[in-house]
Amino acid sequence: MGARRTDMHRLQEMVRLHRMGKSSREIARQLRMGRDTIRCYLRALKSSGHLEGAPEELPEIADLRVVVSEHAPPKEAAPASSSIERWEETIVRMRRDKNAGPTAIHDWLRLHEPEYEGSLSAVKRLCARLRREEGPKATDVAIPVETEPGEIAQVDFVYAGKRYDPERGILRKTWLFVMSLGFSRHMFCELVFDQKIETWVRLHAQAFEYFGGVPRVIVPDNLKAAVIRAAFGIDGEPVLNRTYRELARHFGFQIDPTPPRSPQKKGKVERDGGYVKGNFLKTCDSVDIHADRKALRRWLDEIAAKRRHGTTGRPPVELFEELEHAALLPLPRARWELVVWKHATLHRDSHVQIDGAFYSAPWRFLHQKLWVRCTAHSVSIQGEDELLWRHGRVARGKRSTVEAHLPEHRRDLRHRSRAHWIAKATAIGPEVVQLAEAIFDADDVLHQLRKVQGVVTLLGGFPRLRARRAAKRALHFGCLDYRGVKNILTKAIENEPLPEERQERAWASGSRFARRPTETLFATKEKTHGHQ
After folding, report:
1. What average pLDDT does this structure show over 72-101?
2. CA neighbours closer than 13 Å in the CB half-sphere of residue 389
3. Interatomic CA distance for residues 270 and 267, integer angstroms
4. 296 and 177 in one domain?
5. Given 330, 434, 464, 488, which is the most exposed site by the fewest CB atoms within 10 A?
6. What are the DSSP calls for 236-284, one per residue?
7. For 61-75, 303-317, 394-408, 510-524, which range has the lowest pLDDT when averaged over its residues?
8. What is the value of pTM for the model shown?
9. Which CATH number covers residue 239?
């Protein structure tokens, strides 16, 4: 007979039945107690005088408890020896200092204590006893949160099985996006194939349009689409995804991420997600994503919205239309445009890769991680809180290149056409054009682009007059490579007269033996034949 386990109300009933003249056998049968136990209690109550009196005037429960404790004290259980008694201090310390659970403690002891042979059940029993001795903590109390209309919505993803993806032609995992309004419990749901940031913000916009307004505070889980770094502790500062920030600024709501490992902090959407999973998804046999989305929307409007909610006692859509819809923030006039922020490395070619296309940025940021703001029509690259450049969108595999983003003396090397380099040579002078064309035509099989690039780029770095004279000299002596042209400029011999120019100068000076360049042997023969 243990007083701690005895229901005092049953003892009151025992006294009432005894005063009514019932036998011990009858009392035992009605109260479902052993006759020996009944007789033991009756002896204790008789010695205290509590069995006397009218059946309707029963003794107080507190008096009965005192009598039972005095006359029939509970038997103290003999302390049982535990197989983990010698490690109790270690277990207490690990629970207190590291908040470790029974399984973690058991596994740690197995790894680090060679003599440990205890069982997981023994560790669990010890931890349960320690919890009872410690008693409840203030943090164990669940504080119900009162939510005003239009104040809070909670969002989450729930796994929804596999469905057929018509674009890929395979079965894929699907996720159920759920947004629940905290006051009315009205909710929006959608089936998707991924949890990407683009999907996350697009579903928010769809939910706001479905509700016809925007809650003031959104409570998301700590998924990467919402929170890049969670806040651990009250002093921690969560780092929000930039794309999610842009969405919040456009629609005017604030973000209040739940603490890590605390799903109870968004219990409303957790329960709603479980409700959808246990109701609609349990009875949905289809694997067609489009058919399931239509069926889900119909189920939301006709079943979920009109059910009698267990907490509010009213259908969610009724409470929503009556009190919450008018309290939501209005939808912005400007239509929301998807904005996605991405981290991208500026590669060796001075371009970042976004969605398979390439966009240039100043080469001084080479190999650095840059922030890229992407919309449907533009790609804006930022570094160190400054806008570096805004590009228009180009197709996958294409490049958007700004010449000024490349090193000045190398930016033209990206051009591979003959016409481009002839145009560059034309800007310097006709002699450079002749030299470039001569190099291009020097071999009818081997492409001479690199030679032309080197020579034209070299000549472009000198004054035009020097470059033109150097090109003319190189043509005269057949120097059709970079080294020959560079030697002419390095030795500054481009101004020295060519052989034919020496003869012309000598004739002009009146030299006795000088002959004009045109007076060649062929010219003399031609004259002779003409006279004949």
Report:
1. 76
2. 18
3. 5
4. yes
5. 330
6. ---EE-HHHHHHHHHHT-EE-PPPTT-GGGGHHHHHHHHHHHHTTGGG-
7. 510-524
8. 0.56
9. 3.30.420.10
